[in-house]
Amino acid sequence: MPATDFQGSSSSSSPFSSFGRSLLSLRRDAPASPAMPLSAAAAEEDAGLDAFQRHVAVLLADLRGDGGGGGGDGFMSAAWIRRLLEAYVMCQEEFRVAAAAAAQARRRGGGVAQQQAERAVAELGERAVKALDVCNAARDGVDQVRRWERLAGVAASALLAAAPGEVHEGHLRRARKALSDLAALLADEAAAAAGAGGACGVAAFLASHRNRSFGRARASPTRGSSSASSPTAHFRSLSWSVSRTWSAARQLQAIGAGLAPPRAHEAAAGLAASAYAMGCLLHLASWALVAAVPCPDRGAALQAHHLPAQPPRAAFHWAPPLLALQERLAEEGRRKDRRSSCGLLREIHALEKSAQRLAEAIDAAPVPLAGDREAEVREAAAELAAVCAAMRDGLEPLERQVREVFHRIVRSRMEGLDSPALNAG
């Protein structure tokens, strides 16, 4: 996915600025249907748009029930985020159809109603374009988490590969080396997320274990470090496909800028309300991605200063579950043990905890291992291996879904550019 940088740019500078108009005109070249009274057409349009918003409410309520305040335990797991992205893709396609149907009715009326409808969809198109960079940064973050998983898997397999009673210093040394490399990456990411406060919690423990294991104190590199000897600095300088000055917090602010509920007296209030629902869903999906995995300026994005104005709960069916999910996500970011974590993704938290347990077990293990000490080390290694397997199973479909969102947005823009309706008067 090629990077796009829309921070600080105006809507008029985007090559997709006319997408909103073209989306409403997708069916302009279709065979004309028999004429119907304007009142009947308006009633049919309102019914379709209301059904769309009710479906958005159902999807968000389902996500809320699975950990977003309804007692479930899947919140911010890879599977949960994938379902959130799937909901966005589904709603995007349904909105596309509903907007095209509404355009047919609005063209019969023309005037102010059509202009307001086109403006609402155009603004949504601009917000979606800004989410392309979020997809790129999230894809890079998934790649980084996959690197952590590989290192953790090496540590676990180094111990599990030995026959019972045959865990010797060589196996422990290989496990320590893998945990050392993992500690360097985790501590670097945690320090970047925490800002001047540096790493803390699990990442800090692993970093200290790394120093003890190799008998030397070595400061963990930070994101801004320019040391040529830092392997993590080299990794960071080449991995991000967004620009080095890109900020997740600023991008979320750009996606949510001007996102406000439509005025009830507007002639195109039905379509504008549906576009507003899509804008709120897009912002929530982007925020969840940024919070879940390593991302530039992710720490600032967790502070929720980028949130748009709250939608009125009584005015929209989807507002209560959306606000509940926003509150849960903000609460996760405020938790002391998560503020400086390497990501709110549930699998990352499990990896950090299991790696810490294995490091503690290795520290306390005499050589050669035997009896209960060996059983404890093997149990910790088996737990870490299981976490790595679950992470692999979750990351691959999540990455595919992020790519799907990216390509859906791009394809929608290209359909707008290629439509002959662009030249229609």
3D architecture notes:
The C terminus is likely disordered. The protein is built from 14 helices and no strands. The protein is elongated. The chain has 425 residues and is an all-alpha fold. Helix 2 packs parallel to helix 11 and helix 4 runs antiparallel to helix 8.
Helicity, as a percent range: 55-70%
Order of helices and strands: HHHHHHHHHHHHHH
Query: What oligomeric state do these chains adopt?
Result: single chain
Structural class: mainly alpha
Total DSSP helices? 14
User: What is the averaged pLDDT score?
Assistant: 77
Overall geometry: elongated
Low-confidence stretches: 5-36, 196-200, 209-239, 419-425
How far is the first residue's CA from the last residue's CA? 35 Å
Radius of gyration: 25 Å
Could you tell me the number of beta strands? 0
Q: Major β-sheet, in short?
A: none
Which properties best describe this structure?
425 residues, 68% helix, disordered C terminus, single chain, mainly alpha
Summarize the structure.
The protein has 425 residues and is an all-alpha fold.
Helix-strand layout with pairing:
Elements: H1 19-24, H2 38-65, H3 78-109, H4 111-160, H5 169-194, H6 201-214, H7 231-239, H8 248-256, H9 269-292, H10 298-301, H11 319-334, H12 336-339, H13 346-363, H14 371-418
Helix pairs in contact: 2-3, 2-9, 2-11, 3-4, 3-9, 3-14, 4-5, 4-8, 4-9, 4-13, 4-14, 5-6, 6-13, 8-9, 9-11, 13-14
